[in-house]
Amino acid sequence: MDKIVTKALSLFYGEKRILKEIDLKIPQNNITAIIGPSGCGKSSLLRCMNRLNDLIPESRIEGQILFDGKDLYAENTDVVEIRRRIGMVFQRPNPFPKSVYDNIAYGLRINGIKNKKKLSEIVEKSLKDSGLWEEVKHQLNTSAMELSGGQQQRLCIARALAIEPEVILMDEPCSALDPAGTFKIEELMIKLKQQYTIIIVTHNMQQAARVSDFTGFLYLGQLIEFGHTNQIFTIPEHKLTENYITGRFG
Amino acid sequence: MNLVRIKEKAIHFFFFTTGISAVIILLGIFLMLLIRGVQTFKDVPFFDFLLGIAWNPSAYGEPSYGILSMVVSTVMVTLGAIIIAVPLGIGTAGYIAEIASPKKRETLKPVIEILAGIPSVVMGFIGIVLVGPVIAKIFGLTSGLNALNGSILLAVMSLPTIISVSEDAIRAVPKDYNEASYALGASRWTTLIRVTLPACLSGIVASVMLGIGRAIGETMTVLMVTGNTPAMPHSFFDSVKTMTATIAIELGEVPYGTTHYYALFAVGAILFLTSFGVNLVAELVTVKHRRGRA
Ligand SMILES: Nc1ncnc2c1ncn2[C@@H]1O[C@H](COP(=O)(O)OP(=O)(O)O)[C@@H](O)[C@H]1O
Ligand SMILES: [Mg+2]
After folding, report:
1. Model confidence at B293, in pLDDT bands (50, 70, 90)?
2. Which residue of A has its CA nearest to B101?
3. Is the Cβ–Cβ distance between A89 and A185 less than 8 Å?
């Protein structure tokens, strides 16, 4: 089943066209990787999917994005609900300057959960799911800023998991991490795909090959090729894709 | 070679003296206030001065020099101004920094800057002809020249400081935090109140302190709109005479070298210490704020 489908999706920042008629199908409970050189529009594509581009006043889209078959950009779409159901993890770990506990409780509180016991339960569960619990269970009240970069990123994942989204968008989640931190996140992603649909943007091709089931290659705002990861990395159809994954440019 | 060194020394000396002279001037002012002020206590016991309610230096026979009423008046007018200005100022700053469209921001900012440039006499004038009658009408008073009027005008006068300093603080908060909040489904206002403002709390505190610093020292407006009754106020509808107004009104007429003359300097010294203290706290908070970011 396809969780998110884009139909002839174009994105403009003012007059500048960033994405060009992208047709993409994101299958449920899989990891889909979007690869491509810097500036090709990977982040922009991801941010269309939780409507984070709405924050940029001069941005505008053409075409359609369907989420569970429903138009994401329809008049009556509740953006808050969309962002609750489609979570996001950013390139730079960005925990709030609050305690570990409050970082995770934040999303719950703004969604109306006030019960202390329930909050604590969900905080614990989210931290366990993100594999951080053992490391921070005795310092839930210390500032998240004191964690290492890798821990911060897993905290951000826990924060996203806490409100039980259906999709998790990850924008180069490991680019600021060391190999050990990267390995932990990749392991986590594979575990999480049982429950979630994951889209990961990366310009690390080994990473895409390691974790993803499907891969899309984006180049200058166009989706050049999309298919099973195995196929893309072994017998790409397009010359451009082949050149990119063999490292001839990028 | 030698010439270069002399030149360098001269330049160094120049900047050192300009830097140090600001400190010397500040100290000089304070010493002047202090030296004259303490002479009050040759005639008036310190605690009578500090805790006495009646200020009546020109009473025949037994003059009184208690400053408590005017201290309370100043505190009241200032506190009232803070209560009005803080939510309004922070709200406006948040709106301008995070919520307004670029176009609205471009119109609002100059308007606020103009507000900062209005002379205090003009503010006082507005207080007399506009705010006063409105207050009198709403609350059914005979006169609208009271503490509330002073608070409202001081609030308006401290708003530009609070708004512009808070706005800078809010803008300095990394965008990442806001995006993380939006991505969890938070609205703009929720994000502002629960993420952005807490992240720059010390900057906000500094802005408020600077705003208050201005309000405490403001004289002309307060003098024009508060009615200047030298008595202990019981409510915001009472006419009050603040410390600044007392000095401004009386210093011009008091005979040189009298107890009354020195007492006014003592009031000035207390005022100086208070606003110095407030500014110092604001400065310390700002420095800590900058360190926290680095
Ligand atoms: N807010 C913005 N306003 C205008 N142009 C932008 C904005 N954000 C990104 N861009 C442009 O969009 C293009 C794609 O950027 P991005 O999606 O960040 O690429 P990637 O994530 O693949 O490196 C770049 O040319 C970038 O300059
Ligand atoms: Mg990017």
Report:
1. very low
2. A57
3. no
